[in-house]
């Protein structure tokens, strides 16, 4: 005991993977009447902590029962042997409540660097709590989980901007929360504004650049045109429904062979798969919920009819829905490791010679009949017959090209077993 009347202990380093570190049940049993003793008899407790990572920390002392109720199912480490630095881990959630919102702390300190708590001791059982100032471990679990989900969807579906929306929303909330924590950390303790107010203002500032886009999205109706629904309606009414496309026996590796034998699927661009399945109620080769993407683009970018028919036969496809793929053709070619099929000009994208060899050009641009395109010979597709063309379309090289086209694959030329 030094001459100034204090008792001190050596500094000790603790490492924890949980949100909180506790020194539990500091009992101060006083056997005398309350009027007999005061602060000068029980003394004052001073605790100093700092983070080796330089992060903002929180240090508080409160009644043991209230601390445990507040922590609830939060994972934490308890110091069982202060002399030897032994810990006991209590499993649970990796996200703790915000310590600054609790009202039971008898004394507390928080901020960056070394933090010192001074408390005048009182009778009772007390617990010292040390944790990150924001009450969290180093990783935001929600962001990690949805980030992994978004990455998985990006790899499996290629086009998935809409799945990134929840990730952006979580990131916005986290950015606002961290901004609030930073403002409070660098504000004087007696003049700190409420955390929700700071977070709300920070979120508003961060979301402000997106305001115009949000308004446009709310006012817009993103639906396919009536000509597409007319095409899907024709397919629903005119193409035989030999199987139920939602039949569970068609799913999974052990598919029922009797059902599969009756399947006559539709081969269409991947992005139309779900609409086709829902509106036309026909089985599809490629669906934008995750399957058939590569085979669909291999079919439309095939440079020979034999290659395309082999893909169709493997998927038991009898019908083909062709659409304008100009905006994505070069992307699809890149996915297959091929050079671009269209080149940029002052008037927009223009086809190169290799494009006219693809099934996309032969079906969509020339209705499977063949022809001449700027000196390039376009071969016909005798195994595919045009059975429907929408009334709407565009003009290309002086010719009217329908927006949507349905072809039937001849089973005599390419029999499906």
What does this structure look like?
This protein has 417 residues and is α+β, with helices and mostly antiparallel strands. The chain folds into three domains: 20-132, no CATH class; 141-219, no CATH class; 226-409, Rossmann fold, CATH 3.40.50. It contains 13 helices and 18 strands. It has a six-stranded mixed sheet with strand order 5-4-1-8-3-6. Strands 9-10-18-15 form a four-stranded mixed sheet. A hairpin with a 4-residue loop joins β4 (76-81) and β5. α4 crosses α5 (195-207) and α10 (293-300) packs antiparallel against α11. The longest helix has 22 residues, at 164-185. The protein is elongated. The relative contact order is 0.08. Residues 27-41 have low confidence and may be disordered.
In order across it, which strands form the biggest sheet? Answer: 5-4-1-8-3-6
Number of helices: 13
| CATH fold-level assignment of the largest domain | Rossmann fold
Give the termini separation. Answer: 94 Å
The helix-and-strand class reads alpha+beta
Question: In percent, how helical is the residue content?
Answer: 25-40%
Q: Strand count, sense and closure of the main sheet?
A: 6 strands, mixed
Second rung of CATH, namely the architecture of the largest domain = 3-Layer(aba) Sandwich
What's the CATH C level of the largest domain?
A: Alpha Beta
Summarize this entry quickly.
This protein has 417 residues and is α+β, with helices and mostly antiparallel strands.
């Amino acid at each position: 005991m030094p001459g100034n009347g204090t008792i001190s202990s050596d500094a000790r380093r603790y490492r924890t993977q949980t949100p909180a570190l506790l020194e539990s049940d500091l009992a101060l049993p006083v056997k005398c009447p309350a009027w007999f003793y005061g602060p000068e008899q029980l003394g004052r407790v001073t605790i100093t902590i700092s983070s080796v990572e330089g992060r903002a920390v929180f240090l508080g002392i409160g009644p043991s029962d209230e601390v445990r109720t507040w922590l609830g199912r939060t994972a934490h480490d308890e110091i069982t042997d202060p002399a030897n630095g032994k810990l006991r881990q209590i499993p649970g959630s990796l996200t703790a409540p915000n310590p600054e919102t609790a009202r039971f702390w008898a004394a507390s300190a928080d901020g960056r660097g070394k933090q010192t708590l001074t408390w005048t001791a009182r009778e009772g059982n007390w617990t010292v709590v040390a944790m990150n100032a924001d009450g969290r471990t180093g990783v935001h679990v929600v962001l990690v989980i949805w980030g992994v989900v978004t990455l998985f969807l990006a790899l499996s579906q290629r086009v998935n901007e809409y799945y990134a929306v929840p990730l952006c929303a979580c990131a916005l909330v986290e950015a606002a929360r961290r901004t609030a924590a930073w403002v409070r950390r660098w504000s004087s303790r007696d003049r700190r504004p409420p955390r929700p107010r700071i977070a709300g203002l920070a979120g508003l500032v961060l979301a402000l650049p997106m305001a115009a886009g949000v308004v446009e999205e709310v006012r817009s109706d993103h639906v396919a045109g009536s000509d597409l629904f007319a095409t899907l309606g024709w397919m629903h009414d005119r193409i035989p429904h030999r199987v139920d496309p939602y039949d569970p026996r068609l799913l999974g590796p052990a598919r029922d062979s009797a059902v599969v034998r009756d399947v006559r699927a539709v081969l269409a661009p991947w992005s139309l798969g779900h609409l086709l399945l829902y509106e036309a109620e026909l089985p599809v080769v490629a669906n934008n919920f995750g399957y058939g993407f590569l085979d669909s683009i291999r079919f439309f970018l095939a440079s020979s009819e034999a290659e395309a028919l082999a893909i169709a036969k493997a998927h038991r496809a009898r019908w083909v829905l062709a659409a304008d793929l100009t905006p994505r053709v070069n992307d699809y070619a890149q996915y297959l490791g091929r050079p671009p099929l269209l080149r940029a000009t002052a008037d927009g994208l223009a086809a190169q010679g290799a494009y006219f060899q693809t099934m996309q050009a032969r079906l969509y641009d020339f209705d499977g009949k063949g022809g001449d395109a700027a000196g390039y010979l376009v071969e016909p597709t005798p195994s595919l017959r045009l059975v429907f063309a929408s009334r709407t379309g565009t003009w290309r090289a002086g010719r009217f090209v329908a927006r949507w086209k349905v072809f039937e694959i001849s089973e005599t030329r390419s029999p499906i077993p």
